[in-house]
Structures are given as C-alpha cells and as structure tokens.
Amino acid sequence: MAGPVLAGSHKTKNGLSAAQLKVLDNRASEQYRDSVRLQPQPIYTPSKWGAQPYRGNYTGPYLDMAREAALTHNVPVDLFLRLVQQESNWNAGAVSPKGALGLAQLMPDTAKLLRVDALDPKENLEGGARYLYQQYRRFNSWRLALAAYNAGPEAVEKHRGVPPYKETQDYVKAIWGS
Fold it and tell me: What span is annotated as the signal peptide, if there is one (predicted)?
C-alpha cells in the first residue's frame, strides 16, 4: 500500500515527485558548482593556417577591428593578428623606414590601389586584410601570401617561392612559424 500523498504533488514516470526532483537538483548543483571539467591541453600542429595561434599581449581597441577585417576578407584571424603584431606592434601611427604606414604597414601606393586611408586604423586593417587575401588568391598559399605582402608579389614570382631575402624569410618565419 502506498504512503500518504501530499496535496498538489504528483509522481513522474520514474516514481519521484516534483518536490523530490527539486531536492536532488539542488544537491547536484551545490555539489558540482565548483567542479572543473578536466580537458587536455590543446595541441597545435602546423596546418594551412600556420603553426601557432596569436599569443600577443595586445588587448586594445584595434584587436577587434583586426579580427573583423580578417573575417570580412576570409583571412585566418590568428594569422592576420600575428601579421599586425609583426608589422606595427599595434601602433596605428607606425611609419617604416621605407614609408609603410599604420597598423598593417601599407605602402602609400598599395593603400591608394586599395582605396583606403592608410592613416585611418579601421581602413588600414581592412586594406591589409584585403591585400593579404588577394596575395593568397594569387599564390594559393598563406605562406607565399605573407612573402608577397612583405617583399611584393613580383619577388615571389621571380623566385618561385619565398624570396631569399633575410628580411622576408625572417618575416614569414615570425608570422607563419616555419
């Protein structure tokens, strides 16, 4: 014979009342509130997007702009963030000895061709991401796109790969990882 039934309570399919389920739910939430799910450390292996994720310390306003520009122009986000880190160290006012300007270090003629204002951070990043993607489309390789971004596409074509210039080889290695 069944025991007394509380007014307003009803049994679920498994024979527990709503009140009993509530007690169990509360105990479970208290028990697991501070638990940590164990997960292995992520392993990064070389892929078509480079060997490592972006690990820079920059957290300012240009980071989201750079992410957005990369996504808009189909450039792997981590790759583009590493490029900006390498090019300008996130300095929107950076000017190279050769005259490259801004965060993505666009040459004035390149900025003009891309129809962007190289001194405007958002436009500079948009132009940099678009130009990098154009080089990727041209060479079908992110590694060669980086080399073309640094040394110019003609140098990549002439040498049928990453040009043998120390600056360009160091640049590609710093961003791509190999």
Answer: none
